Amino acid sequence: MIFIMEATRFLTLDDVAPLARGCAVLGTGGGGDVRSAALAAGRAIREYGEVPLVGLDDLDDGDLILPLGSIGAPTVGHEMIHGDDEPELIRREAERLFGRAPAAVMPSEIGGGNGVHPVAWAARLGLPLLDADGMGRAFPEVQMVSMFVAGLPPTPIVMADVVGNVTTVRPVDGLWAERIARAVCVAAGSSALMADYILPVGEARGAVIEGTVGLALALGRAVERTAAPLAALAAELGAKILVNGKITDLRRETTGGFARGTVTITGVGEDRDRALTLEIQNENLVATEDGRVLATVPDLIGIVDTQTASAVQTEGLRYGQRVSVLAWPCDPLWRTPRGIATAGPRAFGYDLDYIPLEDIT
Amino acid sequence: MIFIMEATRFLTLDDVAPLARGCAVLGTGGGGDVRSAALAAGRAIREYGEVPLVGLDDLDDGDLILPLGSIGAPTVGHEMIHGDDEPELIRREAERLFGRAPAAVMPSEIGGGNGVHPVAWAARLGLPLLDADGMGRAFPEVQMVSMFVAGLPPTPIVMADVVGNVTTVRPVDGLWAERIARAVCVAAGSSALMADYILPVGEARGAVIEGTVGLALALGRAVERTAAPLAALAAELGAKILVNGKITDLRRETTGGFARGTVTITGVGEDRDRALTLEIQNENLVATEDGRVLATVPDLIGIVDTQTASAVQTEGLRYGQRVSVLAWPCDPLWRTPRGIATAGPRAFGYDLDYIPLEDIT
Questions:
Q1: Which of B162, B181, B213 is the last residue of a domain?
Q2: Is the N or C terminus of chain B more exposed, i.e. has fewer CB atoms within 10 Å?
Q3: What domain range is B152 assigned to?
Q4: Where are the transmembrane segments (chains A, B) (predicted)?
Q5: Of the candidates B166, B185, B213, which is a domain's last residue?
Q6: Does the beta-carbon distance from B169 to A167 stay under 8 Å?
């Protein structure tokens, strides 16, 4: 396999900031802290060089993809930074388990810091980054990945923590994967690096969401080059703006490895008689107004700064902030029956049927 | 390796009851339910045949020993019985990790059901049982084994639960082993089968406690054939009888995968003006009288029925029971500085120095 070919694109230092901005938007509040991930990505590119960004077609069918992501409460991620050794610990264990070395790193989730950090992990491992991920967004639970929806087995899951503990789980199904991996994560201080659904390229087609690293970069660039960032972002995403307002109520707690909460956004200007409520479990999951659902997971609901269109992550929400709420459609995979069963509103404990965003008036 | 040689002893159906009685005594309250373990051992011997009992010298230095034990709250073990597949799931994972099949099963702890259940596991796997264990008693935490005291690395730990999930942990040390394995165990419903310190025979000498299966059998037999079982048991163990009395206070709770509690035994007959208090964390750990320590972990403290000398496990303690409290010395390995640091009173949170039982008057 030759990475250095004319067609190969490299992720450079200049790409880190726009990638981080785009990943923050796709994270819909979650996916881990983008700022520390961007620092790590910048540091690793400086130290190890630029990272080839490849597509599935640049790899051989037998090449092993190593999907990597942090698991844990994003609020913990702020204080407990990943060490430098976890990717190598996981790579080594994957090689031991599969009998061959991984050929590329893939973000498990493109949303939040988990979309940005893989640049650092790939750089350290000397591997290219695959322009794809397992969510097209961020989700809080282990089984909520496209590979699960596509019916692939999650086993083995390999986890490493900052201390150097390595845990491999062969769960019987995706729900047990979540239970056990979450318990290991909490034991490690609510933060660990995880590889699940390690898979050959030949099985990845239709089971990963392609082009999402490129999409995140495009979102970040779109907001950069305009005097009207909110409109530019909405246009690039094909998003509805649900409300422009300010945060007037905010409840958050970190429990069982999750950041859970509720935020109320009271409209300003033309929206001044309105009030939106968002339900949060790491990510923004359901938007309601006067008890009526305006958008629901797996469709994406983003809170952004009204002036700059910068995404506000769950742990960055502050009383009084001027924000706009955007909503846009998820990848079609999430709208299949298995996709909705996995990550629809009922999967998060809400007594709601999923209605596609486009069908809500 | 030939198991069927003249010198080989086999564990038969007739051995199960005395083995269970002896393991209950060595369990000092813990080590898991002996009754369900004895049922499982009997059933497996009927189904798969008698189990060869071998010593280290019957095996080759390169032969792999598979130490097996249940992890979890004994109170949960009563209601959630092991499935039949866990030993095979662990054996298969061990073979995958080590590149060769285990040659013998060893009880991780001889105390309680964990001393008896390995007969069933060995029978199912078609492997001999090693006449040795990792404690010479029962202990509640993963790192509290002789192999840890001997300085061997705990890695890898392989766990399987009744659902079929298999988890392999490569912890950086014994304390992290306990934290992560305990979390996995709690996620699986506070009960799992575990192999840790999987090791070749050549490394086992001095790192396992030899002859403990035979000792448990001898204890069970000693109590069987006498009109004075309490005296016979005390003689066989070389134990002090701390008090003869009845249970007058009892507090237990199951929390974080442990059964914790305190029991007060008020003397009867010659002991009628006395009251002993035992501190329990799965096992009986500290015996005090009027604030004075009479015996402390790692020395062994057993509660037995005064008439029959049958051990009373923690979850079998009842208000009003007529019991006697015995104490006897632990294996010398536990009295080394590393042994006391691992399983002395301070390792369990008691602000006490260890004093050998023989030095307490």
A1: B213
A2: C
A3: 9-213
A4: none
A5: B213
A6: yes
By Cβ distance, the residue of A164, A180, A186 closest to B167 is: A180
* Predicted local distance difference test score (pLDDT) of residue B218: 96
* Residues A202 and A242 reside in one and the same domain: no
Q: Distance (Å, rounded) from C-alpha A343 to C-alpha A153?
A: 17
Would you write out chain B's pLDDT as a tens digit for each of its 361 residues? 445 555 579 999 999 999 999 999 999 998 888 999 999 999 999 999 999 999 999 999 999 999 999 887 544 444 445 668 999 999 999 999 999 999 999 999 999 999 999 999 999 999 999 999 999 999 988 789 999 999 998 889 999 999 999 999 999 988 898 899 989 988 887 678 999 899 999 999 999 999 999 999 999 999 998 999 999 999 999 999 999 999 999 998 877 666 789 999 999 999 999 999 999 998 999 999 999 999 999 999 999 999 999 999 988 999 999 999 999 999 999 999 999 999 999 999 999 999 999 999 8
**CB contact residues (below 8 A), chain A span 33-62, against chain B:** none
User: A73 pLDDT exceeds 80?
Assistant: no
Residue B6 token pair? 């003249």
Residues A269 and A234 in one domain: yes
Q: What's the structural domain count of chain B? A: 2
Asked, for residue B221, whether it belongs to a domain, the answer is no
Q: Domain for residue B236, yes or no?
A: yes
Neighbours of A292 (CB within 10 A): 8
Query: Tokens 């964390």, residue?
Result: B281
Chain A nearest-CA distance from B91, in A, is 14
Q: Which residues contact A163 (CB under 8 A, 6 or more apart)?
A: A188, B172, B176
Residue in the structure block whose two tokens are 């019987």: A172
Question: Between A and B, how many CB-CB pairs are < 8 A?
Answer: 58
Is A170's Cβ below 8 Å from some Cβ in B? Answer: yes
Q: CA–CA separation, A71 vs A20, rounded Å?
A: 18
- Give chain A positions within 8 Å (CB) of B186: 183
Q: Looking at the structure, do residues A197 and A233 belong to the same domain, yes or no?
A: no
Picking from A166, A168, A180, the nearest residue to B187 by CB comes out as A180
Chain-chain contact of A183 with B184 (C-beta, under 8 angstroms)? yes
Does any CB of chain A come closer than 8 Å to the CB of residue B188?
yes
Same domain for B240 and B125: no
Confidence of residue A82 (pLDDT cuts 50, 70, 90): low
The single residue listed with the structure tokens 């742990």 is A315
Could you give the dihedral angle defined by the CA atoms of residues A98, A103, A109 and A110, in that order, rounded to the nearest 10 degrees? 180
Contact A187 B182 (CB under 8 A): yes
The one-character DSSP state at A358 is G
B9 touches A: beta carbon within 8 Å: no
Please name which of B311, B321, B287, B315 lies closest in space to residue B301, comparing C-alpha atoms.
B287
Report yes or no for ipTM above 0.95: no
Alpha-carbon span A155 to A18, nearest angstrom: 34
Q: Are residues B193 and B235 in the same domain?
A: no
Distance from CA of A198 to the nearest CA of B (A): 16
Cα-to-chain-centroid distance, residue A318: 22
Do residue A240 and residue A198 come from a single domain? no
Quick one: B192 and B239 in the same domain? no
Assigned domain for B218 exists: no
Are B256 and B187 part of one and the same domain? no
Q: For residue B187, give the CATH number of its domain.
A: 3.40.1610.10
The pLDDT, as a whole number, for residue A282 is 86
Cβ within 8 Å of B, A 312-351: none
* Closest listed residue to residue B248, CA positions, set B323, B324, B326, B320: B320
Chain B residues with CB under 8 Å of A165 CB are 169-172, 176, 180
> Which of B166, B185, B186, B194 is best to mutate for the A interface (most A CBs within 10 A)?
B166
B351: in domain: yes
Taking an 8 Å cut-off on Cβ atoms, the answer to whether A184 and B184 are in contact is yes
- Token pair listed for A121: 């992990």
List, for residues A266-280, the tens digit of each pLDDT value. Answer: 999 999 999 999 999
